[in-house]
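<derive_structure_tokens>
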Amino acid sequence: MVSSALSLDPEPNQDVTGQERTNKEKEGKSKSHKILRVLKWFVQDQWFLIAMGFIILVSSQVQVPESQQRVKRTVVTYLAVSVIFFINGCTLSTRLLFENYKRWKVHASVQLQCYLLTSAASFAIVSICATNPHFMDPWLLIGLLFVGSAPTTMSSNVVMTRQAHGNAALTTVQSVIGQFLCPFLTPILIQMYMSSGAWYTKVLITGAGEYGEIYRRVFQQLGLSLFLPMFIGQVVQYYFPETTKKVFVEWKLIKLSSVSLLTMIWQTFDQAFRSGAFDAVKASNIVFLVFMSIALYFLWLGICFTTSTIWLPKKDVIAVCYCCPAKALAMVVPLTSVMYLNISPIDQSKLQIPAIMYQGFQVAIGSIMTVLFRRWIRTDEEREDQEKNTGIAQGR
């Protein structure tokens, strides 16, 4: 009997071991489920960032033929921007747009930061880099000046502001004002910084560029791809409000704005890789531009966020934070080709590399920032919903 009892002693230990194994398996499954949930959330929330990376990878391997680059650039730029602002016209109330046009203090603050603050910071960095003539290619230094002096972009900041639950109407208004001021302010800023007489300015041959061509191109693009689509969208929203809301909000066709922006990014990098601009620049310069693009974006974003939170509500802060650091590559290209004559194609491409790289990082960082901004504004949105529901209940 004793021996039989002793023989049964190990069974409880076996049960404990089996239970521990089961618990470990459950913990392992729980961890894997958490990882899968996080990955699923990341893909659903940051699909734009993933798609952008894929597009840049494809652009580096396959490009549109050189003979079709001009047609591709014109069609994509006009069509993509038109889709973005048509959707804005269909989804933003006319009253809200006019209210934001009247806010001259915000306009003055944003445009001063977007032109003077960013250009001054770029000139300071270029001046530091220029102390060693063998460190950076002169065309890249001049390209950095163009980045700092360029206006805010018309497309990515509007899309990102909407994704971050900011004031998309204010961002739209700032984009229009910034693009309108560009032909007048950017050439003046560039000429002012280039008058320093530094060694890198000697590579340029200044000519009597046709500035009228800049004005014509800018205002033509503003009219055909911004004002006209916005107006048509407002008309559609006025006559078919319920249908418009159902199509763009419930059916989520508002995401076409993001798809249009991806098309513009593909166009930009396709042109850059086709021109061979990246192959003509030293690897150390490319690495420097990567770090500098990230540093400049966060510097301008930090200053903008700090100064705007003092006197603006959160939705407006988000809009301003997407306007000030963002730069329009679409304006840098025509400006470089008109302001300076007799530049070889390879030098022209090198001049545009800083803007191309900065645009890629501004979209990538802006996409990630939408998550942080949504969390930051969530408490205010929940309070607004609660007050709205309380008001409805009291009305009943």
